[in-house]
Specification:
Helices cover 50% and strands 9% of the residues. A 4-stranded mixed β-sheet has the order 2-1-3-4. Helix 4 crosses helix 8. The longest helix has 16 residues. The protein starts with a strand and ends in a 10-residue tail after the last helix.
Length: 232
């Protein structure tokens, strides 16, 4: 039996950046038992407006930067740039999501490998692309909405850049991203990051500890009918 997990994030979400270590561990512990479907949601689709609105009384961009620096102090494994949202402030996460959806489509269409690779710490090419996008923004302070930055990451992974551009220009990546947003609404996903299991009956949102994630997956594996929709 394979457990399907839908993983909803915004690529500009620091909690998803810091939480990547849990996804890597989940894959190692349940390599043959789970299938992760990566979905992107528009938390930072209008990034500057979002920050101005939420952080208006707390220093706006400078206040948000200080918040991110404080959060990162708790994580030795994921350093962050001092320039986030002050010197580097992406307009929207959507261009990065579209680029990543195009890479995901390449994997689904078997145009690139979708197998875990040792040299990528057990990640697939698509999973490594997601990680490198986050590293480029959070660690290196680069604007990952820029096509030049996106193409450099794709080149680093030896991905077919022309095919990626075609999947975006043709609208196929847009259609795939729309399906993510439909699932976001259907499950009423509260934010990023969120793990959805058991066809939406189990939702783990936010900075959830690994033992909680592990327990949920093990329960489904041991009791596959747990949480089945009631007939009454």
């Amino acid at each position: 039996m394979t457990i399907k997990i839908e993983y909803f994030t915004d690529v500009l979400c620091i909690w998803a950046y810091g939480g990547q270590v849990r996804i890597d561990e989940l894959k190692r512990d349940f390599a043959n038992d789970i299938e992760i479907e990566y979905r992107f949601i528009p938390i930072f689709a209008a990034a500057k407006e979002q920050i101005r609105r939420v952080w208006k009384a707390k220093g706006e961009f400078e206040g948000f930067n200080q918040h991110l620096q404080q959060v990162a102090k708790n994580w030795d494994h994921v350093p962050v740039s001092q320039d986030l949202w002050t010197k580097v402030a992406p307009e929207s996460s959507t261009p990065a999501h579209l680029y990543l959806k195009a890479i995901q489509l390449l994997a689904k269409q078997s145009e690139i490998s979708n197998l875990p690779l040792k040299e990528l710490n057990g990640r697939t090419l698509f999973e490594e692309a997601i990680w490198l996008f986050r590293v480029a923004f959070f660690r290196q302070g680069l604007d990952i909405t820029r096509s030049v930055v996106q193409d450099e990451i794709a080149q680093q992974l030896e991905l077919p850049i022309k095919r990626i551009h075609y999947l975006i220009d043709s609208g196929q990546a847009h259609a795939a991203l729309h399906l993510d947003e439909e699932a976001w609404h259907n499950y009423k996903v509260p934010g990023s990051p969120t793990l959805v299991l058991n066809d939406g009956r189990q939702i783990l949102y936010g900075n959830v500890g690994y033992r909680i994630i592990d327990a949920n997956v093990r329960e489904l594996l041991h009791n596959p009918d747990q949480g089945e929709a009631s007939w009454c």
